[in-house]
Amino acid sequence: MAQPIDLADPDRSLIAGNWKMNLLHAEAVALATAVAAWSAPVAAAGVDLLLCPPAPFLASAIGAVAGGAVAVGGQDCHAKASGAHTGDVAAPMLASLGCRAVIVGHSERRRDHRETDPFVRAKVETAIAAGLVAVLCVGETLEERDAGQTAQVVTRQLRAALVEAATDANLVVAYEPVWAIGTGRTPAPGDVVAAHAALRGILAARGPASRARILYGGSVTAQNARSLLALPEVAGALVGGASLKAAEFRAIAETAAALRRQPA
Ligand code: PGA
Is the pTM of this model over 0.85? Predict the structure, then answer.
């Protein structure tokens, strides 16, 4: 039986599915079950798989992937570890359920809930303190990109969230250009490489041997996965829409596995 993965090894690739506010319970269970069924060879090739279902489905998803090589994580957590915050989910709750990770700072949260850099930093802190891997999303808007501010924006967001306790094992950064999310548009390869290099520069300033994973996210599909995943410093993908389709998510994960077996 495959071992559940703990996501702590930065030298493995990571393919994460962010289901956002989609699916009903039975559909979520079916999707998690389907991913677990093909997960073992992908994991054996050095690719971690992470599913981030909506909060009400986390426990069922954890049950559905049992026996597979799949980790489950939250899509968000509160900045505080507990307290009077109606409707919110705390990082220690996620950890107590068996979640391994939590997405923080997603642009949809920054936009819909006016989350600021300091608030996102507090979430990273709480997530790591709870023993979770924090998947920190950074990315520029179209206006910022057009103004040539991409590197400036993403490095500001990363710097703001780089808490003392962050290590290669508990922090994953996801570069997600806001204008590429759910739009079918992706940046030119050179732009992805430049953004990832800027992010690595910030991580390396803390420790030159930094290996923390930097994922790309934004309209990743089975069609473009290979070209994106083969880029330098792209350690995996944070997949939204395509992660809701079992066959397409599988194709993306298997592309990552194939690239590990036979680098481009
Ligand atoms: P998308 O979403 O793949 O649907 O563009 C990615 C994300 O928001 O994480």
Answer: yes
